[in-house]
Write a structure and sequence with these properties.
The protein has about 575 residues and is of the alpha/beta class. The longest helix is centred in the last third of the chain and has 18 residues, at about 390-405. The chain has 15 helices and 31 strands.
């Protein structure tokens, strides 16, 4: 195993290792990257994993991010002569895995590119040079010799429409690219410490795979037909070997739970155009937080019949603006027409700009949907500059708003079922009144809370229950900081009334409120009885809430004689 540093502002290293017979990984370790895809807040960097299989013929599976160009190419050429590469397998064409395809083909013009039909079409659009290709589908195989028979599994929408998985029967290794990955950078090659990687693994699933839960289950059904899988060679983070079964089955469990939703939203985007895919993922993440299922659909590659069926079974539609013209204009125009024709007047509609430089205008298209009787799911998101953290937060909150609208009837029914003695008994559990406040980069959030309890003496710590559909939940991941503001009996009404309001997506929660800034950067409410500065240590999932355990790093009481405000309930099925 070799780790080679490169002198740069951020730490970029390469790690190589043999992971199976005739199989080597080249892992590009990006130690300091703190943003990825839909502006996920990363605590532990990320990696870009590539693989070489040397049978009688040589296959290179995926490449790396362009920022690793020289370091990766030097490492590759030190391991093999590029002129010996017979096949370049493209799991999918997102730039972090295919950023060096053009460079590889310049070094290995004899190589045949292997990928799905959609992947090959996408690749043609951005490398602009002829290349040999093999289009593969589920069940098809490629014999490299020496027992290395590669079998391909179609896995569209995980998380791009062009994704394939590759299974080497000879080594029982499944190459999965984004699937079963995580943004976690470490010298450890494998998943040796489950507790350390579990939060990042779950967060990655929630952001990228959760909105495609039904596609995850479809892909896993195809995977079940493969032979024994001893290693999952993923595209990000440590490879799965020690806890492979546990981590793979978590995908199945999470996806089955997500797919039980009685309502779904179709989110239409245009892959590889502007920021359409990233913005759509942010909206989709917000929707899934409310327990509503999502179907992601690429306007560029989707079949019109599939689009018609998806629209017909959806309670809501979200559309990212396609380009006015271009190579795939025929496909996107046809699919937009199908959406309009299949839309129903009981559905909700939301639209967003892709910031691709040539977006179709929102208003004329929105008017057609409104004339067809669709209700507005959220205010149209107009992107006038490169999307910032604030824009991504706006998108996620818009998704949450749409999901909450769709689940409103269900929540009303829950609140009306007050006849149960159990509900009334649980309602006698009382709590204090608190306001959580958080700041992370450009983002901020706040939430009224009452399910708070001390959980440890040393270090001093407590737990708080945060509903999954709360906007602030995204700012309370492991390692994040926040402030717990403790409200005072007799003086809490103004603050409680303010933070109980339903804020529109992107609204400033602190407008008109006196605040100071804590050492950890989060807002302190001046009118609170006391405050605690906190760091999230761990999270436990409990159906519709997260139990967040945090240690306290600092605190102060403003009125030593004040008492904490108490919240009494009569029923246990609502706050």
């Amino acid at each position: 195993m070799v780790a080679t540093p490169i002198k740069t502002e951020n730490r970029l290293t390469i790690q190589t290792a043999d992971i199976a017979e005739d199989t080597t990984t080249i892992r590009s370790l990006d130690w300091d990257r703190d943003r990825f895809d839909i502006e996920f807040g990363l605590q532990n960097g990320t990696t870009y994993n590539s693989y070489i299989i040397c049978g009688d013929k040589v296959a290179l599976i995926d490449t790396s991010h362009a920022k690793f160009r020289q370091l990766y190419l030097d490492t590759l050429t030190g391991l093999i002569d590029p002129k010996t590469i017979d096949y370049l397998v493209i799991s999918h064409t997102e730039p972090d895995h295919s950023g060096l395809v053009k460079d590889i083909l310049e070094l290995a013009p004899q190589a045949t590119v292997v990928g799905s039909k959609v992947a090959i079409n996408f690749l043609e659009d951005f490398i602009h040079q002829p290349f040999e290709r093999i289009l593969v589908k589920s069940g098809e195989s490629l014999d490299l010799g020496k027992g290395h028979i590669l079998e391909f599994v179609s896995a569209p929408n995980l998380h791009w429409p062009d994704t394939i998985l590759t299974y080497d029967k000879g080594t029982e290794t499944l190459f999965t690219c984004d699937v079963f990955g995580m943004h976690y950078c470490s010298d450890l090659l494998y998943d040796e410490h489950l507790d350390e990687i579990a939060p990042d693994y779950h967060f990655y699933y929630e952001c990228l795979m959760g909105p495609n839960a039904r596609s995850v289950l479809s892909a896993m059904k195809r995977m079940d037909k493969l032979g024994t899988i001893s290693t999952v060679a993923n595209g990000h983070g440590p490879l799965l070997r020690y806890n492979l079964h546990e981590l793979v089955e978590r995908y199945r469990t999470w996806s089955e739970e997500q797919s039980k939703a009685d309502k779904s939203v179709a989110v239409f985007y245009v892959s590889d155009y502007g920021y359409s895919d990233r913005l759509s993922q942010a909206i989709a993440k917000g929707i899934t937080k409310t327990g509503v299922a999502v179907e992601m659909v690429d306007l560029k590659s989707a079949d019109t019949q599939d689009v018609n069926e998806i629209v017909s079974r959806s309670a809501g539609l979200v559309i990212g603006m396609p380009p006015l013209e271009g190579h795939h204009n025929k496909e996107t125009t046809s699919n937009i027409g199908t959406i309009i024709a299949a839309a129903k007047n009981k559905q909700y509609i939301g639209m967003f700009e892709s910031y691709g430089g040539n977006d179709e205008p929102i208003d004329p298209l929105l008017t057609k949907f409104r004339e067809a009787g669709l209700s507005k799911g959220f205010n149209s998101i107009r992107v006038k500059d490169t999307p910032s953290e604030t824009i991504y937060q706006l998108c996620e909150e818009a998704g949450v708003d749409l999901g909450q609208t769709l689940t409103q009837d269900r929540k009303v029914k829950q609140r009306k079922s007050l006849d149960s003695d159990l509900d009334k008994a649980i309602g006698r559990i009382s709590g204090g009144l608190y306001i959580l406040t958080a700041n992370k980069g450009e983002l901020n959030g706040a939430m009224l809370a009452s399910w708070v309890t001390q959980a440890s003496f040393e270090p001093p710590g407590f737990t708080v229950a945060v509903a999954k559909d709360r906007a602030i939940e995204s700012l309370m991941q492991v390692g994040d900081s926040f402030v717990l503001n403790i409200l005072e009996e007799g003086k809490y009404q103004p603050l409680m009334k303010h933070f109980l309001k339903r804020f529109p997506p992107g609204a400033d929660r602190f407008e008109g409120i006196d605040v100071q800034t804590a050492n950890n950067g989060s807002p302190i409410l001046v009118d609170a009885l006391a405050y605690l500065e906190c760091e999230v240590i761990s999270r436990m999932e409990c159906s519709d809430h997260w139990i967040v355990y945090s240690k306290v790093t600092n605190g102060r009481v403003s009125n030593p004689d004040g008492l904490t405000a108490i919240h009494h309930r009569k029923v246990g099925n609502y706050y």
